[in-house]
Amino acid sequence: MADGSERDDLPQATVVPKKRTRVSTVWVIPILAAVVAVGIAVQRVLSEGPTVTIVFKNAQGIEAGKTVVKYKDVSIGQVAAVQLSNDYSSVKVTAKIAKSAAGLMVEDAKFWVVEPRITLSGVSGLGTLLSGNYIGFEAGKSASSEDSFSGLEVPPIITDQPGRQFVLKADNLGSLGIGSPVYYRRLPAGQVVAYALAKDGQAVEIRIFVNAPYDSYVNAGTRFWNASGFDLSVSADGLDVQTQSMVALIAGGLAFETPPFSPAAEPAAADAEFILHGDQVTAMKQPEPMARRYVLNFDESLRGLSVGAPVTLLGLPGGEVTSVGLDVDPKTQRLRGRVEFVVYPERLVAQMHDPEQVRGEMLARVSARREAFFERMVEDFGLRAQIQSGNLLTGQRYVSFDFHPDAPKAKVDWSKDKAVVPAIPSTLPNFEAKIGSILEKLDKLPYEALGADTRKVLATLNQTLKDAGQAVKRFDSDVTPDLKKALEEISRATASADRLIKNTDKGLLAPDSPGQQDLREAMREVARAARSLRVLTDYLERHPEALLRGKN
Amino acid sequence: MSGAVVTGARAGLVSCETCKLLTRPVNAEHAGHCPRCGATLEVRRVQSLQRTWALIIAAAICYIPANLLPVMVSNTFATSDAETIMGGVVYLYSSGSWPLALIVLVASVMVPLGKLLALGYLLVSVQRGMAGSHHERARLFRIVVFIGRWSMLDVFVATFTVALVQLQPLMSVLPGAGVLFFAAVVVLTMLAAETFDPRLLWDSATDMEKQDG
In chain B, N or C: fewer CB atoms in 10 Å? Predict the structure, then answer.
């Protein structure tokens, strides 16, 4: 300061009083930064959802920090780490779940890897082709929370759509698979969602999901059948091909329907069990409480008659063959064919005309009266069984009941457990007999008498020919000279006509004939006229005004 | 530099920091204003150490989220990638371009950290009245000031990328919160370098010389 006072020539600074705080206000900045940083950290911690681990068989397409967990297509978390399990047999995926979805992490929640799936019945997960695989999530119903899950290998059935699941028991899976369609009146009504072998190993349990409103048509009486592929059956009715749809043809499928005869019932409860029938015919088969079994004995070939072949009454189906075998006739100790068949009286009754139906039903109900009725048909009217050819191409045959009044008298044998019904040989063996009788008749023809008659006819013919020869000779001698004269006349006339034509030729067409010269001159004149006409038109073309003004 | 160097402070004079006019201060506590340009006169910048400390601490606080929070969020179809600075370095290194990784590591991680450490060292040395190595410390300070203006490069690149890569349905890049903190670190360290009074470095030197003399 001593130096400063010496230099008076330097200007004196002005004083501006200023209050100064000890602590600088700049400390606000680090405090602010700290508050912001701590705020972000606190917010991070608070927004942190639960961390769950999911165990998968493999981690195809799952990447730490990239793969997301999606529920209803909304991202609810992200995979944080992908590690192998301790025994290297599976993959442990650690995922951070958003806090908003923390409540969804319950015991029965499901996780699975969503990847593009192309099955015969549809394409799913196409979005993952672009975005990569993600982990699908399905909420559970449990209340207890959980943080470790085992991932599903196949996507679960999305059950948030209305509908119900049912269980079908089948002998085998057939060509069904997960996703195979379920049809109701050929409308896609649901799908197969799972299948498993039954606990006893004797059946397959197929779990299906039927969408609302179709599920309300499933009741206790509903029949399910396998509509897989196409069903080709060769029977006495011919070739029968049945299929539900193209998809079912390729991917297999199921169908259900409630038969009209089943009593109206409440819709079946979820998870109700049903039997899966092999095809629609067996599925829709009416229960036949009054079915009776009968036996037929035949002394002919049973070739072409198979189990299941129809038994008809006057051509209407009324039953079917249940077994075809052999038997020994107790009287003659001779081998014979034995055909067992079942008759469904209900079917026959159902085909009766309305007023008769009541009576028919009565008849069918009372066993004794029915038997009496049947006996009367057999004994008085000649109702007989007969094997007939159903289809000439396939050779299938069936049992036909028809009235044969001229058949030998027979009775129904009620003594056995299964009544034996009289039968007559089929018409096909009769065929041979008929041909035989035709041959017999041919044998009996009077060939010698026929030969004598033929000879007589030939002699008469000879005489006639001789008469014709004489007639020709007479014509020769009487008519021919006149004919000659007439021909000469004609020849002469022709010659004079010829001469006349030649003269005309000379007069008109010879090179020096006057006609020719006149013609030539005339032609020349015409040529000249044409030339002057051309000159005129040429002139007129050049001078069209000449038409008005004249040629100058 | 033999003998006593006449410094402004020792002579009781103040140089205006703006127009460099040498003036006599009003009194020791209040130097007053420059009569020529009107700027506040200070023998040493007021509370230089305190302010620099505050700014460095603020920068250090911001340095943590700058490295932990994502700098850029790139969205493609359905994936969303949030990359932090270190994540980017690791990605670049693992994808084989280690020179780029090194550049990013040096420019974005080491330089801000180095600035913070350098300023902290300078402050501590001044507060402790550390003698010696004045020239080295002065050079360090000059380097810190020089580097400061280049440190915004990261922020610049990030903002450019965000502005350019907006191919909406295909790909888009959004800025992350990390880039804000990174920018704060850069600005705060620049301000800290600005508030640090390099004259303080030489006070101990002149003191020492005075003691010697």
Answer: N
Using a CB–CB cutoff of 8 Å, tell me whether A12 touches chain B.
Answer: yes
Structure letter (DSSP) for residue A152: B
Q: Is residue B37 domain-shared with residue B79, that is, in the same domain?
A: no
Given its phi and psi angles, is residue A157 left (phi above 0), alpha (psi -120 to 50 degrees) or beta? Answer: beta
A206 neighbors A192 (Cβ within 8 angstroms): yes
Query: In this structure, are B51 and B67 located in the same domain?
Result: yes
Are the Cβ atoms of B26 and A13 closer than 8 angstroms? Answer: yes
C-beta atoms of A18 and B177 within 8 A: no
Question: Does the structure show a pLDDT above 90 at A182?
Answer: no
Give the C-alpha distances (Å, rounded to integers) separating B138 from A352, A462, B121, B126, B142.
122, 161, 12, 12, 6
Which residue among B24, B32, B34 sits closest to A10, beta carbon to beta carbon?
Answer: B24
What CATH number does the domain containing B164 carry?
1.20.140
Pick from A420, A424, A419: nearest CA to A403 = A424
* A86-122: pLDDT as tens digits: 888 888 999 988 888 888 888 888 888 887 766 655 6
pLDDT tens-place string over residues A426-467: 766 556 667 788 888 888 888 888 888 888 999 988 988 888
Residues B53 and B20 in one domain: no
Average pLDDT, chain A: 80
Kindly indicate the confidence band of residue A532, based on its pLDDT and cuts at 50, 70 and 90: very high
Query: Domain check: are B26 and B106 in the same one?
Result: no
CA–CA gap between residue A156 and residue A83 (Å, rounded): 24
pLDDT of the residue at A212? 82
The pair of three-digit structure tokens given for residue A367, joined into one six-digit string: 């066993």
Please report residues of B whose CB lies closer than 8 A to that of A30.
Answer: 54-55, 57-58, 61
Do B181 and B78 lie in one domain? The reply is yes
Strand partners, A97: A77
Separation in Å, CA A241 to CA A160, A174, A413: 37, 18, 40
DSSP string of A407-434? SPP---B-SSSSEEEPB---HHHHHHHH
Q: What is the mean pLDDT of residues B166-193?
A: 84
B3 pLDDT exceeds 60?
no
Q: Look at B12 and A3 and tell me if their CB atoms are within 8 Å.
A: yes
**B154 and B92 in a common domain:** yes
Both tokens of A449, joined, read 């008498």
| Among the listed residues A71, A75, A73, A79, the one whose alpha carbon sits nearest the alpha carbon of residue A51 | A79
Q: With contact defined as beta carbons under 8 Å apart, do A443 and A407 qualify?
A: no
Supply the ipTM of this predicted assembly. Answer: 0.74
Does the distance separating the beta carbons of A17 and B184 come in below 8 Å? no
Instruction: For residue A364, give every residue at least 6 positions away whose Cβ sits within 8 Å of its Cβ, in sequence order, or none.
Output: A290, A345, A346, A348, A349, A370
Contacts 24+ apart (CB under 8 A), A101-105: A101/A49, A101/A71, A101/A76, A101/A77, A102/A49, A102/A50, A102/A145, A103/A145, A104/A71, A104/A76, A104/A137, A104/A139, A104/A140, A105/A50, A105/A52, A105/A145, A105/A146, A105/A147
Phi-psi region of A486 (alpha: psi -120 to 50; beta: other; left: phi over 0): alpha
Number of domains in chain B: 2
Residue B83 shares a structural domain with residue B131: yes
Computed from CA positions of residues A171, A172, A177, A178, in that sequence, does the dihedral angle turn out positive or negative? positive
Residue A256 parent element (H or E) = strand A254-257
Residue B91 sits in the same domain as residue B151: yes
Q: What is the pLDDT of residue A524?
A: 93
pLDDT in tens, B38-72: 888 877 777 788 888 888 999 999 888 888 888 88
Residue B24 and residue A13: Cβ atoms within 8 Å?
yes
Q: By residue range, what is the domain housing residue B143? A: 47-212
Given a contact cutoff of 8 angstroms between Cβ atoms, the answer to whether A111 and A135 are in contact is: yes
Bridge partners, residue A298, by sequence: A337
